[in-house]
Write a structure and sequence with these properties.
Order of helices and strands: HHHHHHHEEEHHHHH
Number of strands: 3
Largest sheet: 3 strands, antiparallel
Number of helices: 12
Strand order of the largest sheet: 1-2-3
Number of domains: 2
Oligomer: single chain
Radius of gyration: 23 Å
Shape: elongated
Structural class: mainly alpha
Length: 297
């Protein structure tokens, strides 16, 4: 476990040292390097707006809103709604950490309005397209090369709805197939920040039956899918072409297809939220999109 730098942060501490300590905290919490890079980049930009000797305790809600106005209207660099929303999140998370750990008595960002961004509806596979994709994977499995890899990958994604990172992190010891009729796997995360995303998901009987073919051909030792993210993306793209799709088959498309299938099958909504590994706050937008995809709105 990384220890915090030897710095006593108080309301009199300037912004940059506090941001550096927050970066170490995020690392300790197991946040991904991409998330940390984005958060720290946002906070460094925030700090650059102020004089170098600006202290934490001197920053007010008005100062933060003035910075946000500068981002949108005066900086001279485009700031998309998505970037603005993320930067507000970064600032609010930073000051929340400072107040919750007793470094600041009052959170100046608490009442700053979050500007949420609703992204466009995702693409999903129709039932006919899903069948074509599985048929293409079955053809690969039964070909002269006897290659079950695409079949194991696509059927897992469509039945479980796991994300690309979760698929890449899936290890052999996360599979529980001692009882083939009640087989399942565990989604695991390093660090405590994402602990709420950990969950147990059932495996289909068909997947369990085909998996020994996959093991016999590829002999995975640790990772179930021991290839790079890009290689697995290529596999999905190739499978989509072989299935004759006009769409770009991707991890995200499979996740949303799995979610909409469960939604339309009548799965209890909170069970679906837990299966997808998302928070109740994230579920608000996700469930709204699922309703729209189902034609309920």
């Amino acid at each position: 476990m990384t220890t915090l730098p030897e710095i006593h942060i108080t309301s009199d501490t300037t912004l940059l040292p506090a941001i550096q300590s927050w970066e170490v905290y995020l690392q300790d919490q197991g946040r991904s390097r991409f998330t940390i890079k984005a958060f720290i980049g946002d906070l460094n930009l925030f700090a650059s707006f102020f004089a170098p000797d600006t202290t934490l305790g001197s920053v007010t809600e008005r100062d933060i809103n003035r910075f946000l106005e500068w981002l949108q209207k005066e900086r001279g660099v485009p700031c998309s709604p998505k970037s603005l929303s993320r930067r507000i999140t970064s600032i609010k998370s930073f000051f929340r950490w400072l107040t919750q750990t007793g470094r600041l008595p009052i959170d100046p960002a608490e009442k700053v309005l979050q500007q949420s961004v609703i992204s466009p509806l995702p693409q999903v596979l129709t039932p006919d397209e899903e069948l074509k994709v599985i048929e293409a994977a079955t053809t690969q499995r039964n070909s002269s090369k006897k290659d079950p890899r695409s079949y194991i990958l696509i059927t897992l994604l469509l039945s479980s709805g796991i994300k690309k990172g979760e698929c890449l992190s899936l290890n052999m010891n996360h599979l529980d197939m001692e009882d083939p009729k009640n087989a399942s796997f565990y989604v695991r995360y390093a660090g405590t920040a994402n602990r709420y995303k950990e969950r147990k998901i059932d495996l289909t009987q068909d997947w369990v039956e085909v998996f020994p073919e996959y093991v016999a051909k590829y002999a995975p030792i640790e990772q179930v899918f021991p290839w790079s993210p890009r290689r697995l993306e290529y596999l999905l793209e190739d499978l989509g072409r072989e299935a004759g799709l006009d769409k770009h088959l991707s991890f995200d498309m499979c996740r949303w297809t799995s979610a909409i299938n469960d939604w339309q099958s009548g799965m209890e909504k909170d069970l679906l939220r837990q299966k997808l590994g998302i928070s109740k706050i994230q579920w608000r937008e996700i469930s709204m999109k699922l309703r729209q995809l189902s034609g309920e709105n």
